[in-house]
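re: ur question from earlier - yeah i can do the single chain one, its not a big deal. heres the input i used so u can compare w yours
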Amino acid sequence: MGACSSTKTMGVQRELHGLKELQAAQKVANDEMNRVKQDHSERVAKMQREHQAEVRDLHDRISRMIEMTSEENRKIQEAHVDEMRQMHERHTKEVRRIQEDHHSHMSQELMRHMEEVRKLQGEYRSQLKGLGVEMRFLQSNRPGWCGIASLAMGKDMVLGGEGVGFAGAVGEKAQVRQGIDKFEKSTTP
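and the output i got, formated as tokens:
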């Protein structure tokens, strides 16, 4: 029996020794696993910190780009507004100059036309005086009346090369004179 018990004890001791080795290996594996987990956790935390830092940097870069872009847009808009203002001022000056030129041109035209009208009136008066018609009858202030109705030119009047002439000058002058006399009688109170 002694040999049997020593075999059993040896078997048990071997099992105990194997269990102890297994326990030691398990402890080493658990320690290694804890160390790997801790290392992994540290790496993940480090990557998260780096990622957050990169995100912050990207946000800062984006904000600076937005600020620069908005500043450039503001400058471009100010330049555009300034250019529009200058163009408006130039246009206003040009329009004003054109208006002044037009005004002076129209004034000169009006003066020239007035001189032409005065010349024509003078010629007309001299022709009427040559015919024996007095101007005071032509300058009557009657509304709706423009000229001497009884002095309408007869059919015998023809235009000559140098002015108005009469076919039967003496007889026609007498008729004109009679018309003027009738007109004077009708207009005098």
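The chain is about 80% helix and 5% strand. not sure if urs matches, ping me
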